[in-house]
Amino acid sequence: MRRLPPWAALVIVSAVLLLACLASIALGSREIDLAGLWQVVRGREDEHLRQVIAAREARTALGAVVGAALAASGMLIQGVTRNPLGEPGLLGVTSGASAAVVTATAFLGFSGGAATVWVALPGALLAVLVVYLLGRPAGSHSVVPLILAGAVISAVLYAYIQAMILTRPDVFDSFRHWVVGSLAGASYATLGAVAPALVLGVVLAAVVAPGLNTLALGDDVATALGTPVALLRATTILAATLLAAGATAAVGPLAFVGLAVPHLVRALVGGDHRWQLPIALVLGAALLLGSDVLARVIARPQELMVGVITAFLGAPFLLWAVRRGKVTA
């Protein structure tokens, strides 16, 4: 893929995002034509159309924010670990959120809904904290112990999750709708609940992005250039965790968004993280909204969960990238 000037890539992906937003509002179990959209603009729509538009606006806003957060989180994790297969679940975000939801369902009578955020978000943050403490032995600057700790904690938590859902059918019935990942029932209340974590994550990501360019040269070179490697790595992990935890808490685990988008971004603009961040935010939002539109129209009048679509789109892309030699750190 030919690389573009960063500003041109940002303009193109912004246009794609705009089209995805319009499609997300116009398409679904009931299509809304241009005349209907014009009625909305003029404030003359009927009550049913107004309710449909309001629901789709909330769904579009949440989908765009979640897609952007997952893409940026994946970019940060791949950058800080220099691992081309890095994604938000690498540090235990997904398993921590899932384990928290299962625990709340089994022991507190939790039944899902918008309140999932208040259970999944602290679960994800706690899991990453444990991974970080276990994977950062004194005097070590390698990210390998961190990745191994993430794999171990994720394996333990997933074993716990499987044990709970196999022995408690009621837990499985509630958990299975959340674990696939869906934007159905999206609301501004859910978006507001995760907004503080996501905003802080984006701010921290913007702060650490220039330092990731230096870190890509190696720890020794980065240290020689005056970069506080340990602080940079910890701040980057915190930013990635906040973004991934907030997104996962809002809609459930979504596969391949955080893994695939960073590779697409690097193919477009190269390795400068200062440009990767804004383009990843926009492209991640567009990808998730496009997947959600496809999930709504492919089995109309029913709809698939968007997590199914992102997996189907992301898995072939990853295989193609590996075969073509495009997977780079």
Q: Which architecture name does CATH use?
A: Orthogonal Bundle
The CATH class: Mainly Alpha
Number of helices: 13
Outline the biggest β-sheet: none
Average pLDDT taken over every residue: 83
Oligomer: single chain
Strand content: under 5%
The unreliable regions are none
Structure overview:
The chain is built from 13 helices and no strands. The protein has helices at 6-26, 34-42, 47-81, 93-108, 116-135, 144-167, 169-179, 188-215, 219-224, 229-251, 257-269, 273-297, 306-324. The longest helix has 35 residues, at 47-81.
Layout: helices, strands, pairs:
Elements: H1 6-26, H2 34-42, H3 47-81, H4 93-108, H5 116-135, H6 144-167, H7 169-179, H8 188-215, H9 219-224, H10 229-251, H11 257-269, H12 273-297, H13 306-324
Helix pairs in contact: 1-3, 1-12, 3-8, 3-10, 3-11, 3-12, 4-5, 4-6, 4-7, 5-6, 5-10, 6-7, 8-10, 11-12, 11-13, 12-13
